[in-house]
Design a protein that fits this description.
Elements lengths: L9 H14 L1
């Protein structure tokens, strides 16, 4: 998500969450 945009990008959230699950 860009700094100018307040709402997060769905795809970016999925990638972040997926990485979080993998590293856990």
């Amino acid at each position: 998500a860009d700094v100018e945009t307040e709402e997060p990008n769905q795809a970016e959230v999925i990638i972040y969450f997926s990485g979080f699950l993998i590293t856990s």
